[in-house]
Amino acid sequence: QVQLVESGGGLVQAGGSLRLSCAASGRTLSTVNKGWFRQAPGKEREFVAAINTSGDRIYYVDSVRGRFTISRDNAKNTVSLQMNSLKPEDTAVYYCAATNAAYTMVFTRPSDYGYWGQGTQVTVSS
């Protein structure tokens, strides 16, 4: 059984930083594409960042570009999201996701991902 487990969420003041991590277990997902999404109360799930199988293609939603950094460690089967200069509007439950196979392109739609973590809460106070 495949499991994605996020960690690193919490409460931080505006301007602060958090680092989210996502560890995969079960079926080997070390080389598949990975992504981060978020969902705020009353809103749809939103794409945040994505990274391809080799890590040489990365894409961010405009609102986080320059503040967030996605990275992966295929040997450890993990993907991380470093979040700097956090803003109150970044408050949401953050989910990591994995595709079913490895691709050189990146994906931004939730429907492109077959595996999801349970989510971790990030709250940014003003």
Q: Uncertain regions: pLDDT < 50 for 5+ in a row?
A: none
How many DSSP E strands?
11
Average pLDDT, all residues: 95
Helicity, as a percent range: under 10%
Query: SS-based structural class?
Result: mainly beta
CA distance, first residue to last residue: 40 Å
Q: Which of globular, elongated, flat, extended, rod-shaped describes the shape?
A: globular
Tally of helical segments: 0
What's the SSE pattern?
A: EEEEEEEEEEE
Largest sheet geometry: 7 strands, mixed
β-sheet strand percentage: over 45%
The Rg value, from CA coordinates, equals 13 Å
Task: Describe this structure as you would to a colleague.
- The protein has 126 residues and is an all-beta fold.
- The chain contains no helices and eleven strands.
- It has strands at 3-7, 10-13, 18-25, 34-39, 46-51, 58-60, 68-73, 78-83, 92-98, 115-116, 120-125.
- Strands 2, 4, 5, 6, 9, 10 and 11 form a seven-stranded mixed sheet that branches. Strands 1-3-8-7 form a four-stranded antiparallel sheet, with no helix packed on it.
